Amino acid sequence: MTKSTIFNSSTRLKANVMKRYKLVFLILLYCCSYFSHSAVILQYHHVSKNTSSGTSISPKQFAAHLQYLKDHNFNVVPLSEIMNSIKKQQPLLNKSVAITFDDGYRDIVDNAKPLLDKFNYPFTIFINPATINNNYSGFLSWQQLKLMAEEGVIIANHGLEHNSLARMPLDLNEQQWFEKQTILLAKAEQLIKDNIGQNWQYFAFPFGEFTPTAQKWLTDNDYIGFSQQSGAVGLATDLSAVPRYPVSAPYDQIPRLIDKLHSLPFTMTLSGDNAKTVFLYQQSSSITFDVIVDDFHPSQLNCYISGLGKQKVNWLNKGTFKISYSSPLPVGRVRCNCTAPSISEPGRYYWYSKPWFILEDNGDWYPL
Fold it and tell me: What is the pTM of this model?
C-alpha cells in the first residue's frame, strides 16, 4: 500500500468520523429543542363579557390568547399528556401548554369551545357534579359535557359541591373531616364516570384552598391535585398541588401571559411550619425555602408577597433562603411569588408561588 493510499484512507476515515459526530450533535440538538422538562397549565373560569370580572376573560381576549399560542408555536396538549409525562418521568414536548376551566360554566360551550375548536386545541373542565344535578342556571348540563367528552375534552373532579377542603367545621376533628371528604370525593368521581364515562382521578381544589393534610389525603386516595398558585410544572412537580396560572382579568393581558408561558419550574421544598398554608392573622412572621434549582444567580432572586410588595431575601446558605415579612400577612388569600432569571436559558424566568390562607385573628375565615 502506497503512502498516498494510506493518506487517502486516513482522510476518508476522519471525514466519516466527523460526519458521525456531526450527526450525533444534530440529533442531540434536535432532542434538546424538541423536548423539555417544563410545561405550563392555564386556568380559566368564565369566557364572557357579562360575568364577574375577577373570574372572567372576554371572548375577544381569550381568542387573543389562543392566537398567541399558535403564532409562537406552543404545543397545546391534553392535561393528561403532561401529567403522564411527570408520573413516568419522561421528557415533555417543548413549549407544552394545557388549558383548563374550573366550575363548568355554560359560557364555555357558548363562547370558549368554538374558539378552541377553531384552533383544534384540547382542554379540560373541572366540574361540581351536584351543581349539575341541581340544574343551576349558567352551568353546563350532563348532556353538553357528554358531547364534549366524546370529542376528547377531559372532564374532571372539582368537588361534589365546590366546598373548600381547608375550611374544616368546628364540630369535626381532622380525621372525621377527611373521612367525610373521602365519601364526597368518591361520589363526585362516580357521577362523572356514570354520566361521562371518564375517570381521571384529577381534583382541582375549590377556591384554590388546601392544606398539607389535604395534599396527603389526595395522594393516599391516588388523585392528582391541582391548585391555583402560579408556576410552571416540571418532572419534579409535587402532584398533590400542581400549579396553574390563573389568566382571567386582571391577569389576562398578553404581556403577562407571555411571562407565564415562558416560565420555568422553580423547584423548592418546604418543611414543618413552612409548608403550612392556614394561619391566624399575625401568627406567621417568616418562611424558609430550600431551593433545588441552581441555574440562577442568588442575587437576582426576587420575591413579592401580595399586599406587601417586594420582600428582602436573606440567604442562610447556598441552597436555603429566608423571608421575614415586612408586615403581617393580610387576611385572605395571599401569595408569595419568587422569580429568578435562568442562566442557561436567557429570557426565561424560574417562577415559584407559595399560597397562604390567612384567617381573622379570632379564627374566623374570610368571606368566599
Answer: 0.89
